[in-house]
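User: These chains co-purify. Model them together.
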Amino acid sequence: MDILQVAKRANVSTATVSRVINGFPGVREKTVARVRRAIAETNYVPNPNARSLRMGRTRLFGLIISDVNNPFFPELIDAFEALASAEGIEVIFTHTNYDPQRLHNCIRRMIERSVDAIAVMTSEVEEESLRQAVKANVPLVLMNQRKLAAKYPNVSVEYATGFGEALDHLLALGHRDIGFIAGPPLLSSAQGRKEAFKKALKAHGLQLRPEWIATGDMRVEGGRTAMAKLLACDPRPTAVLATNDLMAVGALQAAHAAHIRVPKDISIIGFDDLPIVSMVQPPLTTIRHPRREVAEQAFDCLQQALQGKKNKTSATLHPHLVLRNSTAPVGLRRR
Amino acid sequence: MDILQVAKRANVSTATVSRVINGFPGVREKTVARVRRAIAETNYVPNPNARSLRMGRTRLFGLIISDVNNPFFPELIDAFEALASAEGIEVIFTHTNYDPQRLHNCIRRMIERSVDAIAVMTSEVEEESLRQAVKANVPLVLMNQRKLAAKYPNVSVEYATGFGEALDHLLALGHRDIGFIAGPPLLSSAQGRKEAFKKALKAHGLQLRPEWIATGDMRVEGGRTAMAKLLACDPRPTAVLATNDLMAVGALQAAHAAHIRVPKDISIIGFDDLPIVSMVQPPLTTIRHPRREVAEQAFDCLQQALQGKKNKTSATLHPHLVLRNSTAPVGLRRR
DNA sequence: CTGAAAGCGCTTACAG
DNA sequence: CTGAAAGCGCTTACAG
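Assistant: Joint model of the four components:
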């Protein structure tokens, strides 16, 4: 009954206090001042539960990611949370650990908590889990789910743009012999990147030599072994792109181990722009995954859905090359 | 009015439905069954806002950390969230970016959201911010705040234990000449680690040579330059401990750059056990900061405080050495 | 063992 | 421009 205390103190009704708090027009200036003073004096803060119960909105958003330990996500979380916080929205955040069953539970829990909207920023998504939200009438937004993009708002990243820029850069440095460290065939996001790479390669009029594709597990270790294979080729590529930064870091280590200098003897380009790539030597040139922008677009989608606007349901973002020190002109040595 | 629908369907009052949902004893088995069926048939889920409004508890915990981008935190978040989730508690989580003003706001926001309890897992804490929670009667728990430990529940980590184990290990390998990469003098957590190192050193009967202490900025870059200084000493240490893993990684890079082999020519030990240390070559031996356990103890403290138990208000945890490949016996070379 | 009813703290037609 | 009152969906003494 706390709004009542404020009301008494200001000599008005609770309705008026409510109006002042929510910035409704049509309250006399003098009354507003009186209410504001009473609020200040009592340190009054509205009870969000009462408010939510009444309004049917909680100002609570759900954010679901794959894995807190994956250094890809912190920036995305950070950006999403900053936007929410600026709007007075709180974020409940959970991770699925790549487990579809957990995704299902995460969504259920969030609906039970009556969040206003959910951003599902995981790489693998099963539609069945999403239907819970549809049924509960909770807006959703996905990331990079091309197959579901027709039915659900989706923020997607056009990998090919990034690979195109990387290839522009390498070609300008004189590279023609370009290797690729791919990800596991079963991982759809890895396959998406591979396809985009091939597409960009073709657009640049380059051949794809099958022996210059090695496959890794998306982690440092996998990049190391994949790179070892590429380095053993004869002829070997003069530049290598990796599906993600962790494997690019592994590739760098493999080169070091083989006493092949980066970038002098071979150029390496990663993908994602994780914090780690500027911590290794040399700092890696990489294609930045626009994850902050993904968070922004996702947040916008949800807000718009809540406001009943139907226009902006999806967005496409483009990754860009970030130059650091792991690429150099093709040496004369191999010419 | 949704519990009413269930009640009607089961031919009971809402009170009885509520009793069944909350597992109160003393409802006839047959009635329970009827209510359960009605709940299942209607897919009924209690409205948490109504519940919170009535009960004065939200089953919402706040978790405040310094920095999402700091790879120290994900495991802590993960552990905390898993415990909460198992108890049907949701976590609102924010970060301060090392800014005391933001900590103040984070705590205020959480109180306004009427969380049941708050874990403040940041390195720097100003007491004034905490008083908001005290005033609002919201239980708190801190991490490694010795100065505040008398007034607030606190989970602290006894760094000296970890350094002691590291020194045991190095002595067993024949090392006597041990260098240290310290952190900035103004950073209290870095100073705490330095003091603990000195203490452990003394306990092992070793001298501290002032020129074998170099200072870095707690990041990879700082570790690199600090290590370069240590390597330039004559005589130089045969083993180096770093205040944190990021600087240990930098130290490793500096050794590589100087063509000094790790661990053959020099041993390196880090602190924290970040994921990154097993991604570099060689994987670093390090002292593991028990951050999962910190999360567990913190969560327990909060739960107990909520249950009105006064016994367990603080806890002390011990870091332990994790052996990997960056240490080796002192070479004969330097004998 | 169960129900009727009050009340948690708000917001919002409705009336004036 | 402002107030009286209903109602959001629960839980919990109280009564039987």
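The domain at 2-46 of chain A is CATH 1.10.260.40 (434 Repressor (Amino-terminal Domain)).
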